[in-house]
Amino acid sequence: MSHILYEVEDRVAVITLNRPEAANAQTMELLDDLDAAWTRAAADDGVRVIVLRGNGRHFSAGHDLKGGGPAPEKITLEHIYQVEARRYLEYTLRWRNVPKPSIAAVQGKCIAGGLMLCWPCDLIVAAENAQFSDPVVNMGIGGVEYHGHTWELGPRKAKEILFTGRAVTAEEAERIGMVNRVVPLDELDSAAMELAGQIAQMDSFALRQAKRAVNQTLDVQGFYAAIQAVFDIHETGHGNALSVGGYPVLMRLEEMKGRIKAQ
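^ Enoyl-CoA hydratase, sequence as received from the core. Prediction below:
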């Protein structure tokens, strides 16, 4: 079964995370296929808007900690850095800067690495049951690789979420401006597609320039430099996790995800 589904409908490319049995947790293969789907949509002149969604109960439970890496005793910080610089930092920044409007449709849990999938999108439509969290401080790591926290949540709310690991509800996320709209779960896909269809009617060059204007304004304020700098701070967290007992400590997070999948 393909981990990413891709289709185009009325000038809207719909990219679907398709690991519902694993709460759309991200393997390296999934992320590579996802990047290929973004690239495909960006290159298609018939696509005006991109919608990112997830099959199943949850948008994404973050990174799949069981999936395909070296044995824990063979993990080094250099290896982690190389993998994450490409698949977590480079990919996410590329998705953020695709010159077409993008919309994330989020339901259920969006945990840690799940944030690096929805935050690069220009707009977020959330189901009423959506919850956004980054609980990895408990694992000895200071946050996900794409540090949108301060920009998306504001500095004090970002600290609260990181320090406590608690989830931000859809209602709270809308109130602080992290999501654009909150809709009933059974209306999530139709609401995202309706919004995408409305945007797709606009002039494609004007859309590109409007997106560039906002992103460049954020970059002038320091967004791009901050993302790069905090990635290196994040990587020291991996060093800390390795120094206090290695990656078996992260299995606590995997156990938590197992409980989520059962919900």
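The mean pLDDT is 88.
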